[in-house]
Amino acid sequence: MFSLVIAGTDAGWGDGGKGTVTDFLCAKFRAKAVIKEGGAQGSHGVFMNTGEKFNFSQWGCGTFYGIPTYLSPRMVISPTGLLNESDALKHCGFYDPFEMLSASPNCICATPYHQIWSLIHEMRLRDQPHGTVGTGVGKAYRQAQTNPELAIYAYELREKSTVEAKLRAIREDVIERYKDVSLNDVLTQDIDVLSQQLNLLYDDGYFQNILERLTVVGSKLNLVGYDQFIRTGKGTAIVERSHGVLTDHEYGFQPHVSELRTLPRFCEDALYEAGYDGRIVNLAIFRAYGVRHGAGPLPTHDDSLFADLPGSHKAENRWQGKVRTGALDFVLLKYALSAHFFDGICLTWFDQIIQRGNWPYCERYTNVHYRLSNTQLLKAKPDIEQVDLPDFHNNPQEMFAFCKDFLGKHVDVPLRLLSYGARTMDKYFE
């Protein structure tokens, strides 16, 4: 059994830097496995010390260290996405990436029809977006709750007749939902995309291609029960999770939330149910400034900061929307940290603050004095302050000490990791 599990959780809306933190923790603790939770829509970037970059989605961010990945039963997988990511890893020198991957038989599978469903749903919201990565993970998860007979699980990928019947039923379900959809239901700039998605929905050749790809994954994917995986594990495992606390389906701010539950307690419950009885260390990961990729409130958003603070390495797109940045928001950070007991904080992207020479932050809103809600956040007027930075003389220990002292004045969770660059070497851990 694993002797230690370290779980990293984004304490914001996402884009907190989970990829590089997972990469560092894997190296620091010589991890034996990365456990994936959440959904296949994430893109966790890892920068090698050589400067090379790779965006992981379903393989863990310890892959380049030779650390295997386990897709837990709390992971909604995309079989077609697995094939695409496998091809990308082959270009990086991996002969057969599936040899480094195993999965719970109970992983829910998102299909391209769930993706079509997600995209059409978002387009029909017109200029009132919800925000989506557009891979169909949320739709697949929600459908498994409301229509469990339609859900495709990882263990069924080996049974072509079962996959074909369920895939056909999922397709018919989406067709029924949008049988009356009109090109007038979407914005002018979305008409071509809507037409393309509808054509794919009714394309029998596309159906056969999906079916073939799903069954190929079924033949490649090594299935291992979570309890067996935990029981036979050794050393340290790192839990790499998608999403953020503030997008939790119930704890987040409606309606701009995930269909998934993203709080750390659900991760812990699954580990204990699988028989784990060792130590779990929970780390909260967030940037040194506010960031949000997509629709929804970001109280400290300030366009004047965007030129100085990069939003994301991910390109803006129709589905996730514009990347926005702002001051570090201690009001929301405290709210996120109150969701669970955290052993420490991992602060990322501090190099961007160093370049500014000062650190903008907010510790109060002038017009919100009661329990936060989505509506209140939209109306919130943050009081922005800033603290000037000393000359750190490129000394990581001095950077860490300054950040630890500054954060300690605002939150009770201690700083454990400071990231002042994208590479593994640009981290200080204490």
Task: Provide a descriptive summary of the structure in words.
- The protein is of the alpha/beta class and 430 residues long.
- Helices cover 34% and strands 21% of the residues.
- The protein folds into 2 domains: 4-102 and 224-429, Adenylosuccinate Synthetase, subunit A, domain 1 (Adenylosuccinate Synthetase, Chain A, domain 1); 112-220, Adenylosuccinate Synthetase, subunit A, domain 2 (Orthogonal Bundle).
- It contains 14 helices and 17 strands.
- The strands form 4 sheets. It has a 10-stranded mixed β-sheet, sandwiched between helices. The protein has a 3-stranded mixed β-sheet with strand order 12-14-15.
- α3 (112-124) packs across α4.
- The longest helix is centred in the middle third of the chain and has 18 residues, at 160-177.
- The protein is globular.
- The chain starts with a strand and ends with a strand.
- The model has no long low-confidence stretch (mean pLDDT 90).
